[in-house]
Design brief:
This protein is of the alpha+beta class. 33% of the residues lie in helices and 18% in strands. A hairpin with a 5-residue loop joins strand 2 and strand 3. It has a four-stranded mixed β-sheet with strand order 3-2-1-4, with helices on one face. The longest helix has 14 residues. It contains eight helices and four strands, in the order H-H-H-H-H-H-E-H-E-E-H-E.
């Protein structure tokens, strides 16, 4: 809570601490809880729940702390898991997270297994720190399509080109993408 308070500028309210503000916000997002449900869970008024939704601004300010620049696996690396990947910047993979969407959008978010979910594409360095994350593509979207979008964005993932000795590790489904 110290990071979100100092970086995000959150302060304790008259009756609600920073920890409770963050808990309200995360509960709303992670469980898709309505204000009415949170009101009873946290024993707070609807007005209080609405007042402290501004935690989102503080969470967004943390992107510089939570997302780091990738660190290269050096030639002198002796770690048993990484010594064969000299020059690697990040490992990239995607996952699906179950979500609740309006009835009209369910077909777009339905995966091939029939689950309503959203795609999350993430890259991690060897310290398991996130170096890139994209959330929001429908569950039905193909991994290669998402990767093409990520590379094409101005603020997207930068893939090394040319004769540099730097590379990214991709999950095998990304292999067929022409952009790489």
């Amino acid at each position: 809570m110290l990071s979100i308070a100092s970086y995000g500028g959150l302060i304790d309210g008259r009756y609600v601490t920073v920890g409770e503000q963050v808990a309200l916000f995360l509960s709303m997002l992670s469980h898709h809880s309505k204000v009415r449900v949170l009101k009873f869970s946290f024993k707070r008024s609807s007005q209080t729940i609405h007042t402290y939704f501004h935690v989102l601004r503080a969470v967004l300010k943390l992107h510089g702390v939570l997302l780091t620049k990738p660190s290269l696996v050096t030639d002198d690396c002796t770690h048993p898991s990484w010594k064969y990947f000299k020059g690697c910047l990040s490992a990239l993979d995607g996952t699906l997270i179950d979500v609740t969407v309006p009835e009209i959008n369910k077909a777009r978010y339905r995966t091939r297994k029939g689950i309503i979910s959203v795609n999350v594409l993430a890259a991690c360095d060897r310290g398991m720190r996130f170096t890139y994350m994209l959330v929001g593509w429908e569950g039905s979207a193909d991994d290669a399509r998402i990767l093409r979008d990520v590379i094409a964005r101005d603020d997207g993932l930068r893939v090394p080109h040319g004769k540099s000795n730097k590379f990214l590790i991709f999950f095998f489904q990304y292999y067929l993408t022409k952009s790489i």
